Structure prediction request, 368 residues.
Amino acid sequence: MSGNSNVTVAVGLSGGVDSAMAAWKLKEQGYHVIGLTMSIWDGSVPITGTGARSGCFGPGEAEDLRATEEVARRLGIEHAVIPLATEYKRLVLDYFRGEYRAGRTPNPCVRCNQSMKFGFMLESAKKMGIDFDFFATGHYARLAEHPEVNAPLLLQAKDLSKDQSYFLSRLSREQLSHVIFPLGEFTKREVKQWARDIGWDDFANKEESQDFIECGDYTVLFSKEDSRPGDFVDAEGRVLGEHKGIVHYTIGQRKGLNIGGQEEPLFVVAIDPSENRVVLGHKKDLYSQRIKASQVNWLICKESPIFSGKLTAKLRLGHQGAMARMESFAEDSLIISFDEPQLSATPGQILVLYYEGGVVASAIIDRN
Prediction:
């Protein structure tokens, strides 16, 4: 595109095919591209012997950093590694631990996007003297102008099977106003084919990270004191057995309870940190028709008539979304009701509200 050479775009490089092809696509379009990569691993958590890379936090970061440097070399672009281990521990790991200790189930990837990738990394790069006009990532999402928003509206990706708008739903209007998502109009298959077409088969064939922690075992983040045993109880408070610490459980969990002699399978239906108890019940007890949420991120004006009609509400990443209505709202909280009861509305998870494929608000689910 004409004029793009005067625009500098910083691309968040992770070492995977998506961020690599986002940088390649922008360079093909004539932008001046530079690469930015967070370094968040400092060896302070006992993650060892994990084998294949499966998460973004762990000793395998060294391999990812080499991959980002190789992307920059092949594209002939500047590349900077931003050291953010201290900030990551404070804003992501401490948050993660705190939420589990409070009996809630957090989403660390959503938190990382909001506070780290689109927050501290960019602020730190500017402080290091790295100047850029826009920030881009390899996320599968889109942006479009909206008449009610003085900023781009976050939309689902064309490839709904890879859509990552849920992970980006906590970004502010200000953050979104300086962002480009080069892959949003394309499918994952197309992106991998670009890599093969330019001879980057090593990236096209690379396995994707599946979790935020490399070993997939969250217990390494907690101390022995966090695994204080307590009672499994039913809804009436009758003791059913002993749990191994509330940080090991989440709403909807069935496996690993080791409670026998029941006519029906038991699930975790509530966690009571004040009494160090895990409440068990049956699957029917996991359904909710009314959800309370707080810490609302309004991506369009909360007084918009959009909120008086039907919305699609997504309760977690794997949730397909269901029709809902806004019952009430305040500046920092809201209540929605579903047309049909929904399974496992888990405190601490992110509630995302969509209207015609656009993210109009997100919030953190409270206890119902």
